[in-house]
Every structure is written in structure tokens, then in C-alpha cells.
Write a structure and sequence with these properties.
Blueprint: H1 4-34, H2 53-65, E1 69-75, E2 88-96, E3 102-105, H3 107-110, E4 115-119, E5 125-134, E6 139-144, E7 165-170, E8 178-189, E9 203-206, E10 218-220, E11 226-234, E12 243-248, H4 249-262, E13 272-276, H5 279-285, E14 293-298, H6 303-306, E15 314-318, E16 321-322, H7 326-334, E17 341-348, E18 351-358, E19 363-364, E20 368-371, H8 374-379, E21 381-386, E22 395-400, H9 405-409, E23 416-420, E24 423-424, H10 428-435, E25 441-447, E26 454-460
Antiparallel strand pairs: 1-2, 1-4, 2-3, 3-6, 4-5, 5-6, 7-8, 7-10, 8-9, 9-12, 10-11, 11-12, 13-14, 14-15, 15-16, 15-17, 17-18, 19-20, 20-21, 21-22, 22-23, 23-24, 23-25, 25-26
Length: 466
């Protein structure tokens, strides 16, 4: 028999558990701003009685998101009559993605300037430095010297659903911290907007209102998580006319990580030409439009060719994620770096196959392939190989990653590696084979172009075999 005392203890335990659950749920979404007392006014569980549960969710999301969105004033010091305040040549929005002051925005917001001033939601101003920018994805990263900063958690944009309610936060027409709402209208949109050598478009389309100044702002879900960076609108007048486009957060996460770690985006390639299966193509090849993406070309010596893919294959999954359009496939491959291995599911003559493909770098001019295999990246370099190398021996270092082991050892891009640990080097595979021997010390010997002087660089690997 349970007596009254036991019942009272059980009741207290249940109430405490409920309170703990509420606290954990609250802290999950508000941890980004709870570290700074300056933002405490945005965090509250007090809501008017006439708000329904859906309203409360989005009010809470807006309170989480607003402190993390900043206004960016872009200036250019090269203009005549430059003074301390400087002319503002453009402005936009940005989003804190870490407590130590990293801000993501659009490349096109910053492109016209070389000095950047951040205004936070509490109207404080900070000078920002450009960490890096990528025109092909329209992603850029700034940093300010302030900590802690209120930041947004980056959500998995693959989980975003058409019809899902979303909130956009930005600074249109200098109306700071403006919040608008809408739904996700479509995913994987390509609108032929982006420039650069490898334009990547797989936008989230929404009817949330964007206008001039919203670029670089946050698109968030009901939990206050970042699902996209607001980038463009469809318009004939120059103002919002119903549809807006945001870069998916998964692409943002990858590009930001690359820019912070390497100073530039690390692009990976399958080495195939692809196209959507239109009605016309469907009739010619006998495949349904929604069956995948058609391979119309396989590049010679590419990762795809080495894995056995052929012209006429239909790719329908990358690492288990469905890809039914050109932008869908582009988006999935963009999440990886050269040297990463992906599982590609494809259909050939009605039969389904799987291939493990090691991605490579894009092919540069002169049919020269840039190798960024994981073993090379771990040391801090990319190398060039392929036709037109014009070398009897050696491997050319294409680039050196800032603050990497090889950078600190003094190696510079253009160095021709002739030997590694006494073994002759003629191609990237020779380097990788020797690196994988797990020697504690790596000794690179070689020369620089137009120089007969020999150079030697040594690095010690403390974690070999780990």
C-alpha cells in the first residue's frame, strides 16, 4: 500500500521532473544568447494570454533570432574624399554563428568595399575583418573582436519541408531587426543568379518578405535555428514581389568551415556532366523524370570514371539522400571536400548499382588536376598533376594552407617536391603512398621554379597511427 507521504513524494518528484524537462527544452534553444546578460531582455517565458501555442513558438523564435542578426555597413577606403567615417557603398545583414564573433553573410553584400562596420541589435558598433569570401556560393565570413556573442545554431536544411513556416530576420531599408514570416515554397531552386567559376544554386524558396538590406540575414525555423541565409528576391520592380531565396544552411555550414579553416572553399568534383530528366529526355531514354539525374558525360580520368560510371547512367542518391534535379546533386556534392568518399547510387539499364567514389578537385586550365586528398590536406597542401605539367620529375605544390604544418615549416606554393623521405616523387599518388607509411618525421626535398638551389622542409607528426 502507498501511504499519503509516499504519494506526496511521488507528486513532488513528478513536478520536479516536469520543471527539469521545461528547463532543458528552454536551454536547448536559448543557450546561444544565455551566455550574455546584455541579451537577457530578449529571453522570457512571459507571453500575452491571447497568443496561441503556434504564435508563442514564433515569438520565441524571433526573440532567439533577433539578437544574432547584425547590420553590415560596407565602406571603401579607395574612394576620393575618404575620411574617418567613410562613404557607405552598400549595406546588408549578417548572422552570428559562434560566440567568438564569426559572422556569415553574402559575398555580394561585401564585394564593393574593403572596410566593414557591424551594428548589433543593441545598437553597438564594431569594426569587422574579412575572413574570406566565395563568389560561386555567395557566402562570406566576417569576424569582430567581441565575446560572447549571441549566435544561432545551424540546423540541418535537408530536414526543411515544403509548407513549413519560417521567419526571416534582417535590416531592410535600414529598418534594423525587421522580422517577417512565411512558408517554404520550394527547395532546390536554381535561378541563374550566382557568378564565379563554379556557381552553386540550390536555394530554399520562401514567401517571407525580403527587400534591400535583407541580404545576408537569417532564415530560421520555429525552434530559432538557422536554416538559410537570405540572398535574393524574384522581382521586376526591384522590390519584393512574392518570392525570396535563401542559401540552405548545410551549404552555409560547409562553406563557412572551409573559409575559416583554409581561407577558401574546398571544392569536390565527381567528374560528370549531368542534366535534369525532362519529358523529352524521358521519352528518349525510357526513364521517369523523377527517377534521378541523367549523366550525359563522364570526364576522362575523373573520380566517376575510375568508379565505373558511364554516360547514360542515372544518379538517384548521394550518401542515401535522394537527388532528382541538377541543383539537388550539386548541393549534396558541395557538402564534401576533395579526398572525401561518397556513396553514389545509380541506375543502368534498369539495374541499380552502388559506387564508393573518392572525390577530386576541379580540373583547372590545361587539363591540370588539383589534388586535395585528405592526406595532403592534413599536412596543409594541394598539389598539381596532369597533362601540361612540363616536368621530368617532381610534384608541384599548388597551394599551402595558412597556419598548417607545412606553412609553419616555410614551404610555399610553387615548390616542386622531388623527394619525400628519400623516395623519388613523380605524382600525387607517390606522395600519398609515402605519407601513409606513418613515419614520425617527413622530410620534403625539392626546388622552386627558375632556381637551382635545393630546399628541405621537415615536419614532425606527433599523432602518427592515432
Amino acid at each position: 500500500m502507498i501511504n499519503k507521504r509516499d504519494l506526496l513524494l511521488i507528486a513532488i518528484s513528478v513536478l520536479c521532473s516536469m520543471g527539469l524537462f521545461h528547463l532543458l527544452y528552454q536551454s536547448k534553444n536559448e543557450v546561444a544568447i544565455s551566455e550574455s546578460n546584455a541579451w537577457s531582455k530578449f529571453v522570457t517565458n512571459s507571453y500575452p494570454d491571447d497568443l496561441n501555442s503556434n504564435d508563442i513558438a514564433f515569438v520565441k523564435a524571433a526573440r532567439i533570432g533577433t539578437p544574432a542578426v547584425v547590420r553590415i555597413a560596407v565602406k571603401n577606403s579607395t574612394y576620393e574624399f575618404w575620411n574617418e567615417s567613410g562613404p557607405i557603398v552598400s549595406s546588408g545583414s549578417g548572422v552570428f554563428i559562434s560566440k567568438d564573433g564569426f559572422i556569415v553573410t553574402n559575398h555580394h553584400v561585401l564585394a564593393a568595399g574593403n572596410k566593414f562596420e557591424i551594428t548589433t541589435a543593441d545598437k553597438k558598433k564594431y569594426a569587422a575583418v574579412l575572413v574570406g569570401s566565395d563568389e560561386s556560393t555567395d557566402v562570406a565570413v566576417l569576424k569582430i573582436e567581441k565575446t560572447p556573442c549571441p549566435f544561432l545554431t545551424i540546423a540541418n536544411s535537408d530536414s526543411v519541408q515544403v509548407g513549413q513556416s519560417v521567419i526571416a530576420i534582417g535590416n531592410p531599408y535600414q529598418l534594423n531587426s525587421t522580422v517577417t514570416g512565411g512558408i517554404v515554397s520550394a527547395k532546390g531552386r536554381a535561378i541563374e543568379l550566382l557568378k564565379g567559376e563554379f556557381p552553386l544554386e540550390s536555394f530554399i524558396q520562401t514567401d517571407a518578405v525580403f527587400n534591400e538590406g535583407n541580404s545576408g540575414g537569417a532564415l530560421i525555423n520555429a525552434e530559432g535555428e538557422l536554416i538559410g541565409i537570405n540572398t535574393a528576391i524574384f522581382t521586376k520592380s526591384g522590390n519584393f514581389e512574392g518570392y525570396s531565396f535563401a542559401i540552405p544552411s548545410n551549404i552555409v555550414r560547409k562553406m563557412v568551415s572551409d573559409i575559416i579553416s583554409y581561407g577558401k572553399v574546398q571544392r569536390a568534383m565527381l567528374g560528370v556532366g549531368i542534366e535534369d530528366i525532362t519529358d523529352r529526355l524521358s521519352k528518349r531514354i525510357g526513364a521517369e523524370p523523377e527517377s534521378g539525374v541523367y549523366v550525359n558525360r563522364v570526364s576522362k580520368s575523373s573520380a566517376a570514371e575510375k568508379a565505373g560510371l558511364k554516360t547514360g547512367d542515372i544518379i538517384n542518391k548521394i550518401n542515401g539522400v535522394d537527388v532528382f534535379t541538377y541543383p539537388h546533386l550539386q548541393e549534396q556534392i558541395a557538402l564534401f571536400r576533395p579526398g572525401d568518399i561518397v556513396n553514389v547510387q545509380y541506375v543502368r539499364e534498369g539495374k541499380r548499382y552502388d559506387a564508393e567514389i573518392t572525390l577530386t578537385s576541379p580540373v583547372a586550365s590545361g587539363n591540370v588536376i588539383i589534388r586535395s586528398d585528405k592526406e595532403l590536406k592534413a599536412l596543409g597542401m594541394e598539389v598539381r598533376e596532369g597533362f601540361g605539367r612540363s616536368l621530368d620529375a617532381g610534384v608541384i605544390v599548388h597551394s599551402i594552407i595558412s597556419k598548417s604544418q607545412l606553412n609553419l615549416a616555410g614551404m610555399e606554393s610553387g615548390f616542386i617536391i622531388l623527394e619525400l623521405n628519400g623516395v623519388d616523387m613523380n605524382k600525387a599518388d607517390d606522395l600519398i603512398k609515402e605519407i601513409n607509411k606513418n613515419s614520425t618525421q617527413l622530410v620534403f626535398k625539392g626546388i622552386y621554379p627558375n632556381s637551382n638551389k635545393s630546399y628541405e622542409y621537415k615536419i614532425i607528426r606527433q599523432s602518427v597511427g592515432m
